[in-house]
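Exam prep: given the inputs below (a chain plus 9D3), describe the expected output before reading on.
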Amino acid sequence: MIIDVLTLFPEMFTGFMSTSILKRAIDRGLVTINTHNFRECAHDRHHTVDDYTFGGGSGMILKPEPIFEAVEAIKANLEKTDVPVILLSPQGRLFSQAVAGELARYERFILICGRYEGVDERVREHLATDEISIGDYVLSGGELPSMVVIESVVRLLPGVLGSEESALDDSHVAGLLEYPQYTRPAVYREWDVPEVLLSGNHAEIAKWRREQAIERTRQQRPDLYDNVSPGLEAGRKLEKTRKNKI
Ligand code: 9D3
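Solution:
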C-alpha cells in the first residue's frame, strides 16, 4: 500500500513513522508513506497557502491552488489516476473500524490534512472523493486524524501484525468491549486477581470473560450493546437447543 499525505507539517509524521508496528511495516515494504508539504506548491514569493474567506469572517482558510497542484503532481506519476483522495475535516463522515476496513482494500490513497479554519470548498467539491472526521472534538488540523487513519488501516494489512497480536481481533469478541485483564503479581497492594482466572478451569474462565465483556459493554457503551444484544440473545437460544439435544 502507498499512502501520500499532503500536510503543512510533515515533521509531525516523523516520530510516528519511526515507531513500533508502523516502522516494522514500512521496513518490510508492506506500506510506503510519502509526506508532501504543499507549501512547496505555492508559487508566490511567500509561498502563501492561506487567505481570508470571501464574505468575511474570522480566521484564514487554505487556498485551493497549492492543494490541487500537489494532488495533480502525485497523479502525474501514476498509471491509474482514479486514486482515492481523502480530505480530513470536521465535516467528514465519522471514522470507524468499518471505514478502516474499507480503506485497507485500496492499494493507494491520498490524505489531505486541513489546517486553520478549513479548506476552500472547491477542494471538497472537485478534488476530494471522500471526507473523514475522527470524532466530534476540535483539533487544530488534519495531521493527528491522518495518523489515526494510517495506524488503523496499516494494522489491517496482511503480514503487518504477528499472530500473537492479530489473535486479539478474534471474531467472537467483535462488537464487545474487552474483558478485564490482569498480570502478575496475583496480589498487589491487597487487591487480588479474581479467583477464577487462577483456577486453571478454561471453560469457567471463558464464561467469566464473556459475562464481563457483555456487562462492561452494557454499562459503558449502551450504543454498542444495542447493536450486539440481539446476536447475544440468538446465541443464547442456540446454546439452549444444543444442550437440549444432547
Ligand atoms: C474552532 C474552529 N471551528 C469553527 C469555526 C471549525 C474548525 C476548523 C478546522 C474546527 C477544527 C478544524 C481543524 N480540524 C481538522 O482539520 C480535523 C478534525 C477535527 O478537528 N476533529 C476531528 N476530526 C478531524 S479531521 C480534521
